[in-house]
From TrEMBL:
Residues 91-217 form the Tetracyclin repressor-like C-terminal domain. The lineage of its organism: Bacteria, Pseudomonadati, Bacteroidota, Flavobacteriia, Flavobacteriales. It comes from Christiangramia oceanisediminis. InterPro entries: Tet_transcr_reg_TetR-rel_C_sf, TetR_C_23. Pfam families: TetR_C_23 (PF17931). This is TetR family transcriptional regulator C-terminal domain-containing protein.
C-alpha cells in the first residue's frame, strides 16, 4: 500500500507474495472475487502491468496460492533435522500434518474458494498444479522405498502409488472442511489412521484396488 511522505506517494513495487496476500484479503473482506484485474489493480494502487508481471489471470493466481501452501509446507518439513531420517510412512504423515496446519492458518480463504461454485469439479480446477506437486512428492517416496527392494516383484508402481496419495489427500481435504472438532483434532486422527492404513494395505494389496477404493470413499464423502 502507498505511504504518504509530504505531498507525494511512494508505492511499493508488488511481488508475487504481495499480490497473493492482497488477493486473499480482498476475497475475505468483500466475500467475492475481484471483478477485473483493472479494478483490483487500481484499488490497490498498482497498474495492470504490475499484476501481469507475475500472473496471467486471477485463475493463475489462485493456483499459485495452492502452490505456495505446498512450498511453505515443504520448507517447514525440510528445516527439521529429523525429517531426512524419517521412514516414508513418517514423511507422508509429516507432510499431511504440516500441509493441513498451513490450510488451517488460511481456513477462511480455503473454505470460501472450495465452496465458491456449486460444481465440485469447477472448485477443484485450481488444484491442478497442487495435484502435480503432491504426485511428484509421493513418487519420490516410493522411489526411495523401491531402491531398498532388490526384487522387482516387491517394488511398488510409482504412478499408482502417487495417484493413491492424491485420492487420499482429497478425502482428507473434504474431512478437514467438514471437521468441527476443537483444534481439528479429528482431522489429525484421520491423517494418522489413513496413512498407516494405506501403507499397511499397500504392502499387502494390489495398488489398483486401493485407488479404486479411495475414489469410492471420495465420491461417498462428496455426496
Amino acid at each position: 500500500m502507498a505511504k504518504s511522505t509530504g505531498n507525494s506517494k511512494v508505492k511499493k513495487k508488488p511481488n508475487a507474495d504481495m499480490l497473493i496476500a492482497t488477493y486473499m484479503d480482498y476475497v475475505l473482506e468483500n466475500e467475492h472475487t475481484p471483478r477485473s484485474v483493472y479494478k483490483f489493480a487500481k484499488d490497490n494502487e498498482m497498474t495492470e502491468a504490475d499484476f501481469y508481471k507475475f500472473f496471467g489471470s486471477f485463475e493463475g493466481l489462485r493456483k499459485a496460492i495452492w502452490d505456495k501452501f505446498f512450498e511453505n509446507s515443504l520448507s517447514v518439513m525440510e528445516k527439521s533435522k529429523e525429517y531426512a531420517g524419517f521412514s516414508n510412512r513418517e514423511k507422508l504423515l509429516t507432510f499431511f500434518y504440516t500441509f493441513f496446519e498451513v490450510l488451517t492458518a488460511n481456513r477462511s480463504y480455503v473454505l470460501y474458494t472450495l465452496n465458491e461454485s456449486e460444481s465440485t469439479i469447477k472448485n477443484l480446477e485450481e488444484l491442478k498444479n497442487l495435484r502435480k506437486k503432491i504426485k511428484i512428492f509421493s513418487k519420490g517416496l516410493i522411489q526411495d522405498g523401491n531402491r531398498d527392494k532388490t526384487l522387482k516383484l516387491f517394488q511398488q508402481s510409482e504412478m499408482i502409488f502417487s495417484e493413491g496419495v492424491w485420492v487420499q489427500f482429497l478425502f482428507l481435504l473434504k474431512f478437514w472442511m467438514d471437521d468441527n472438532s476443537a483444534g481439528f483434532e479429528s482431522t489429525d486422527v484421520a491423517i494418522e489412521k489413513s496413512v498407516n492404513t494405506v501403507f499397511d494395505v499397500f504392502d499387502n494389496t494390489p495398488l489398483e484396488r486401493v485407488v479404486d477404493f479411495g475414489k469410492f470413499i471420495w465420491k461417498e464423502r462428496m455426496a
